[in-house]
Structures are given as C-alpha cells and as structure tokens.
Amino acid sequence: MNTVVERELELKLILSPERSIPVPARLSYRTNDPFAVHIAFHIGSENPVNWTFARELLVEGVFRPCGHGDVRVWPTKVDGRSVVLMALSSPAGDALLEAPTAQVSAWLERTLRAVPPGSEVEQLGIDDGLAELLAPAPGCHDELWLRDPWPSDESQEGEGYV
User: Fold this and answer.
1) Do 142 and 136 meet the contact criterion of CB atoms below 8 Å apart?
2) What are the backbone dihedrals phi and psi of residue 55, each rounded to the nearest 5 degrees, phi first?
3) Which residues are bridge partners to 7 per DSSP?
C-alpha cells in the first residue's frame, strides 16, 4: 500500500539580502519511493516546478549544513526565526529558498513515522521481488539447472549432453 505524506507551505525565494518573494510549495513523500522527497513550487505558471532529492539530505539539513552540487540544505536564523535554507542549482538557473524549520520538521517527522530510517529497502520489497524472480518455476527440475550447460574444454571426445 502506498501512503502519501503532504504539506502545503509558503517558502520565500531569496532574491537579495533585502528582498524575497513568497512561493507556495507542496512537500510530498511517497512510501513507494521511500528514499526521496518531492517539492513542487507553484510559481504562477501553468505547471509547478518540481524537485526531487534524498529525504536524508533534508533531514540532516534541518540540523547542520549538508549536500553539494545541485542541492544544498542548512539551518540558520533570520530575524530570530529558525529557518532551513535550500540552494537549488540546475541548467535553468539557481534558487535560494527559505522554509520555516518548524513546518519542515513536523512534516519530516510524519515521513519518518511512515517509513522509519533504515527500513526504506524493506518498503521497496526488493528482497521479496528477488526471491520471486529467483524461485524455480513450477515443474522445473533442479538437476537441469545445476548442470553446466556448456561442457568444458577438458571434456573427453564423445562426452556431452544429449
């Protein structure tokens, strides 16, 4: 069963130290994609701008600076308020976004209750899928699968499989 944990909130797009604009956003987490968080930024265009990155990166970024490359996250204080800053880079441009720490933390806590850290792989069902894939098909004879289908170069003349 797939569970979705969502939260609507208003972020600030930082344009300069003196200027920012509000950006409505939706944080989404899906238990069928347990390693990722999704953020949809509603910037007034027909389609939102979507970003996906590791949940672990956002969890860590609430407490200390982390990430490199396209996504960097770190906590700070702005006018006495605790916020999380997210620096996003793409070929289309760069953005620095400010999010209220309390709202992000509360949402992250809900995602961590849905899929606790360390249990993400179990959520994907990889072990069950591999077991099913590797299980012998009904009616197969194990001894056929255990023999080497290609005789070695050391086979004696006349040896082989019929």
Assistant:
1) yes
2) -60, -40
3) 27
Q: What are phi and psi of 34, to 5 degrees?
A: -70, -15
Cβ neighbours for 68, distance < 8 A, ≥ 6 positions apart: none
pLDDT in tens, 23-55: 999 999 999 999 999 999 988 778 899 999 999
Inter-residue long-range contacts of 102-106, CB under 8 Å, 24+ positions, other chains counted: 103/7, 103/9, 104/9, 104/27, 104/58, 104/62, 105/62, 106/7
The backbone torsions φ and ψ at residue 110, rounded to the nearest 5 degrees and listed phi first, read: -65, -40
Residue 23: φ, ψ to 5°: -135, 110
Residues 88-115: b if buried by 16+ CB within 10 A, e if exposed:
beeeeeebbbbbbbebbbebbeebeeeb
Rounded to 5 degrees, φ, ψ at 109 are: -60, -40
Does the model's pTM come out above 0.90?
no
E strands, the chain, are: 4-16, 19-30, 36-41, 49-54, 66-68, 71-78, 81-90, 93-100
Question: pLDDT category, 66, cuts 50, 70, 90?
Answer: very high
